[in-house]
Structures are given as structure tokens and as C-alpha cells.
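Notebook, p. 212. Picked up where the previous page left off. The plan for this session was modest: take the two constructs that came back from the sequencing core last week, fold each one, and keep the raw output in the notebook itself so nobody has to go hunting through shared drives later. Recording the first one now, exactly as returned: residue sequence, then the C-alpha cell string.
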Amino acid sequence: MEDTAPQASHPAPRILVVDDEPQEQQAVRALLEEAGYVVETLGDGEAGLARLSADRPDLLVVDLIMPGIDGPTLIRAARRDLALSDLPIILLTDKTYPLDGPSFDAGADMRLCKPFNPKELLSFIKRLLSTDRNRIVVYDLSGPPDPRD
């Protein structure tokens, strides 16, 4: 199995998970904490936006569809904030949207459809946390590659 845990010599990266479904929050929290990350979960976009403004995490995992402030709105707000503009963001969704749909228009670095493969999520978190944030990286894991590409 690929080593996805943070190195012991550095503080564990802090990941904020914003999802309105408690079962999803618990599943993602358990997976990430087992991998050695420090995880905070919140149940709505308003709370997520307030937390981002008060205390920047190392990575944001956000659900697409939530009441009130949804995932794309939260992502756009983060991208407009200079202190958060380079924050790595993963958008989780149980819907399939085209690559140029609302999730990527908002500025997510990666989209992962539920139910997702835990190893994929851990691998992409590790990759995003180690990516040079001065360049744009977009990963689309919404389905198999289009044979026309």
C-alpha cells in the first residue's frame, strides 16, 4: 500500500471537511485521521466560510450540494480571498458534472464523485499538499477518460 501519511518530522496537515451529511463527515474524518491528518468537520457552508476566514487549514474538502452556501459558492469565496486563493480544494459530489461545469468554474483543484475510493482520496490529498501552488493543477476523477480525447 502506498504511504499516504504525513511525515512524522513535520506537523500533521490540517484538513477542513465541509459536508451537510453527518455520515459523510464521519467517514471522511475517520479515513483522514487514520492516515495521520488533523481533521475538523463542519456541517454547512456558512460555518465553513467563517472557519476559513478565522483559521486557514492546509486543505479543504467540500461537498457540492449543501443548503445555504453550497460548495461552489464556498470555493469562489475562498478563491477571492487573497489569504486563501492558493488553498488546495477537493470537491466531493454524488453528481456527475462536465469538466467545465460549476465545480471547476468555482476553482476546485479536484473533483471526486461519491462513493469514492479511499486510496484515491488519500493519494490526491498527498499530491495536492505537495503541489507547487504557483501552478494550476486540475484532476478530474468523475469517470473514465473519454475515448475521443
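Okay, moving on. Second construct, recorded in the same format:
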Amino acid sequence: MTLPVHWVESLAGVRRGDPVEVTGDEAHHAVAVRRIRPGEAVVLTDGRGHRLAGTVTETGKRRLVVTVDDVQAVPEPTPEVTVVQALPKGDRGELAVELLTEIGAGRVVPWAAARSVAVAVWPAAVRTCTHTWSAPASWWARTRSAAVASSPQANRPSISRSLPPSARSSSVKPRRRKLFV
């Protein structure tokens, strides 16, 4: 059985034996939903290539303290996989982001295709603003953060600003060696 994985803001500089405190919604999920208790083993990740295994030493309603047993620094995969994802109907965009996070995509770019039905269901505030294509990116960023905890990957993908219907794949600027899907 795999250990439960929880996301924290940053694990930079953490060493073996250090206590790491998890607070807020992530700690509540660990303590109240998963019912993790002191003495249990967990994995923490920050989605930036840092992963650690540790033992829970304290719990509270919205607090979890883990003593570090092992630290891993995982480099970003090369080449980086960039996926330009058309906006699907309903919650399928969130499902796509979850799956892309779990398989290790390096970057996800939402694209509002000219015939995309999803554009018509955006909130009124987004539809009335001309050339405002950032809404799907912010929705997907929240989904990505939740998916990091269930992902075996130590690096989370970046979610780029959405592309308008007129955009082509050539408008996605490479950051380093890339593989487009």
C-alpha cells in the first residue's frame, strides 16, 4: 500500500530529523478525512521537486506535524511535455488537469477553440471582458494543486494563461526542450 501524500507550500532546506508543520485545509484533510494519527507514516511534497517521507508526531484540528525520515530531490523530467488542452464541457477540464498532473506533464495550456462550447458557460464577468482568457487557467491551477497530493510525481505542471481561439501552437513559447502533445 502506498503512503498518503500531502501537499505543503515549501520543503526547501528541510533535512532529516526536522519537524514540518502542515496547516489549513491540507492538514484538515489528513487529520479529519484520512484520520491520520501520531506514529503513522506519510509523504509530503511541495510540487517543486522536493519529497519527503516522515512520521506524524502531532495532530490537531487543522494541524499536522511530521518528523522527516527521508528527503528526496527529484529533478524535472526532460524533455518537458507541454499539453495544449482545448476547453471541454463541464468538469472534464479539471479531470484532464488531474490526469496530466499524475502522468507528469510539465505544462498545461488551456485553449479556447473557436468552436469550444465551454466558452459559452464561463461566468458573466469573464464573458463581458474582451480578451480575458485567464479564468480557465485559475480554475485549473486549483485543480492541479489538489491533484499534486494524489500524484506520484514530485513536480507539478505549470498552468499557462489561456490561449484565445485565434492562437496557434506556434504561439506557445518554449522554455526548454519540449514535447508538444
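Notes on construct two before I forget. Confidence is low (pLDDT under 50) at residues 120-133.
Flagging for discussion at group meeting.
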